[in-house]
Specification:
By secondary structure, the protein is an alpha/beta fold. Helices cover 53% and strands 13% of the residues. It has seven helices and five strands; from the N terminus they run βαβααβαβααβα. The protein has helices at residues 18-29, 47-55, 67-78, 92-97, 108-121, 128-157, 171-187; strands at 7-11, 32-35, 81-84, 98-105, 163-166. The protein has a five-stranded parallel β-sheet with strand order 2-3-1-4-5, with helices on both faces. Helix 1 (18-29) packs across helix 7 and helix 2 (47-55) runs parallel beside helix 6. The longest helix has 30 residues, at 128-157. The mean pLDDT is 89.
Length: 189
């Protein structure tokens, strides 16, 4: 079932600029904004379970809480929605809800630097030892877990997107490009 209002999925690997673009556009255009991270369950699993998930073909429905699709449908019943998601329109329920899927393309090394920079500057660390341990664990897992997950994501999601936007430009330029893409969709509401 297609919702009465458009759901626009903004996707890309972590560090692509999804959060910035969605937050800016939601405020600028008065759209509801739903972030996938509130429903994501995969990264809470221990590394051996993530490896097993990858080995089983990375079933996407195991990445998120099942309540996500209902929340997304409810929001779309009230008005247009910007949906920040790593999955685009891939899971079957998401596919029925999403009218436009946009992939923000950015090279993995740039995305990694952005993600690490944002995480380290976010605060919330109890001390330097905690922050150092997190960075060390993340970098150790990057090659064996994170990088393969990003490859799966890019291979599956980018090809299913309606538009690909260059994410290497300044964040506001990327958001402006997305605004030009979704403008006609929103005018049709």
């Amino acid at each position: 079932m297609t919702p009465p209002h458009p759901v626009i999925a903004i996707s890309g690997i972590p560090g692509a600029g999804k959060s910035h673009a969605c937050a800016r556009l939601a405020g600028q255009l008065g759209l509801a904004y739903l972030g996938f991270d509130s429903f994501e369950v995969l990264t809470a699993r221990p590394p051996h379970e993530v490896r097993h998930w990858l080995d089983r073909g990375a079933p996407l429905d195991e990445m998120y809480h099942p309540a996500l699709d209902g929340v997304l449908a409810d929001l779309a019943a009230r008005g247009p929605v910007l949906f920040e998601t790593p999955l685009g329109r891939l899971p079957p329920a998401h596919g029925r809800l999403i009218r436009c899927a946009i992939w923000i393309e950015v090279e993995r090394d740039i995305a990694l630097a952005r993600k690490l920079g944002a995480t380290l500057s976010a605060g919330g660390w109890t001390d330097t030892a905690e922050m150092t341990a997190w960075v060390s664990d993340f970098l150790l897992a990057y090659e064996s877990l994170v990088r393969p997950c990003l490859a799966v994501q890019a291979a599956r999601v980018k090809g299913q997107s309606d538009h690909v936007v260059d994410g290497l430009d300044a964040a506001d330029i990327v958001a402006d490009r997305i605004a030009r893409i979704i403008g006609p969709i929103l005018r049709g509401c």
